[in-house]
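HUMAN: Mind sharing a backbone?

ASSISTANT:
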Amino acid sequence: MTTADVSSSQGVTPRGGQGGASSRASAAAGQLVLPSYERPAGLHPPLDFEGYRSTALRHPKQPLVLLPHRLTEVTGPLLGEELIIPTDSDLTTQYVGEPQGQRIIVTGRVLDSDGRPVPDTLVEIWQTNAAGRYRHWREHHPAPLDPSFGGLGRCLTDSAGRYRFITIQPGSYPWGNHYNAWRPAHIHFSVFGPAFAQRLVTQMYFPGDALLPFDPIFNSVRDEKARNRLISKLDWDTTIPREALGYRFDIVLRGADSTPWDDPNRL
């Protein structure tokens, strides 16, 4: 997800192979070198999970085809600070009026597998309002819309890899996966690297949610430790007295302590 991730200088062994010597030889020959990374088994959810009904229709039925990544795929849009304005990360000030619900602050760091911060990375979120309804034309949940809340935010990580959003505690909502199915409160996260092909998506949950044991999407991550990394932590240092609760959610891009991703093949 970082510029270093598409560099052979990190000492990462490319798939299939000969390691640093092969990478250095290719680099010396002027070829674009893209390293691969270890993907621990069981950490990310499978593309076809029996309890998550729609994956039966949308998961690949044939082996994946590895397409070559050329200059277009490993470079991307220039996301300067002038394109990201302060209200992008404060979802409570994007519309006229005060949104309904508990105000919260969600913050954390984007880190690589060695714990190094990943700066200047675009982090996007989307979520329901306090009543559990998305602001989307295909939304069928009969909960009320909040005219003062859109549920979309974005920001760039700072030099220490930190991001910060001010938003509203999302609500739970019913969905058609199975009888009496309800999704626990969650916030969708997208982390966008410096290239068009480098986008990862995950979900953040809240501690103590009674719906978590019954949610097939959350439980599609079979490793318990990895699953628990999707749950944010109440953070008193971030909480603002009489105004907003604070939650911390660090995002690790890869490795044994990686955040589980909806589609790890995008890495």
